[in-house]
Amino acid sequence: MPELPEVEALRRRIEVRALNRTILAVTPGNDVTHIELPSAEERARLEGHQFTEARRHGKYLFAGSASGPWMMLHMGMAGSIRVLDTDEPQADFIRLTVDFEGPRRLTFRDPRKFGWVRVIDDPDAVIADHDLGPDALSIGEAGFADRVGTCRGAVKSALLDQGKLAGIGNLWADEALYQAGIHPEARAADLSEEAVARLHRTAIRVLQSVCDTDATYSELPDAWLIHRREAGRACTRCDGAIDKIKVGGRTSYHCPDHQDRAA
DNA sequence: GACAATGTTCGCAG
DNA sequence: GCTGCGAACATTGT
């Protein structure tokens, strides 16, 4: 689930329901072996503070305030966040809970344990340390051409490289390439200037559209690839059929007929 | 039981 | 030193 638009939807949940409330306790959930969570000391640092701001960079999420510590979260493959009234039932696979005054509770759920939570002091410094590229929604055409359009490998691998561009994952990389008519295995550096610009515009439009629905896939246009990620399904843009291949080790759905290797 | 899964990280080869 | 690739990570669901 969690690429840029999905993480943005989680950020909004925090913004709408979990800001400006004093943190009473931060508690690890059940079965927290093999998952990185803040130590007891770090959890205690959050208590008594409020989150006044929720930020996102790529797929990374931050909640904190100018004066206090920040909680940094990554959703891994299957993590999610809910903000509940404390009398609502707890779901399975909750790895961390933050109890606020109110009462209200933020829960971090992560069945597959690929996500993690840290307590940090300065989001900007951590973003720089992680060697993350600019957020995919904020990069301009020239920056995109410079960072993605020069890669010697497959254009899809370039889109997925968080050091070049932060936020695009497997689903929305496929979607952007499908809508831009570019083959995932095309060498990025071989694409025309026009094709790179088209991919940039398309990627931003795709990501923004998904954000606009709060990452509710059923509200996305029927013609999108997201609704037909299955080999053999009919393409919505030409007479072709969707094919499933591996690119850079990731499952990739595309239409061999209209997605051009030499765009 | 085997396999695939929307994430990142690490080691190796070029 | 940088870039690109494949495997590994822990667990669930099909």
Automatic annotation (TrEMBL):
Would you tell me the protein name for this molecule? DNA-formamidopyrimidine glycosylase family protein
Q: Where is the Formamidopyrimidine-DNA glycosylase catalytic domain?
A: 2-115
What chemistry does it catalyse, as a reaction equation?
Hydrolysis of DNA containing ring-opened 7-methylguanine residues, releasing 2,6-diamino-4-hydroxy-5-(N-methyl)formamidopyrimidine
Q: Which family does it belong to?
A: Belongs to the FPG family.
**Alphabetical list of SUPFAM superfamilies matching this protein:** Glucocorticoid receptor-like (DNA-binding domain), N-terminal domain of MutM-like DNA repair proteins, S13-like H2TH domain
UniProtKB keywords = DNA damage, DNA repair, DNA-binding, Glycosidase, Hydrolase, Lyase, Multifunctional enzyme
Q: Which organism is it from?
A: Jannaschia ovalis
InterPro entries the record matches: FPG_cat, FPG_N, H2TH_FPG, Ribosomal_uS13-like_H2TH
Top-level taxon in the UniProt lineage? Bacteria
Return the Pfam families for the record.
Answer: Fapy_DNA_glyco (PF01149), H2TH (PF06831)
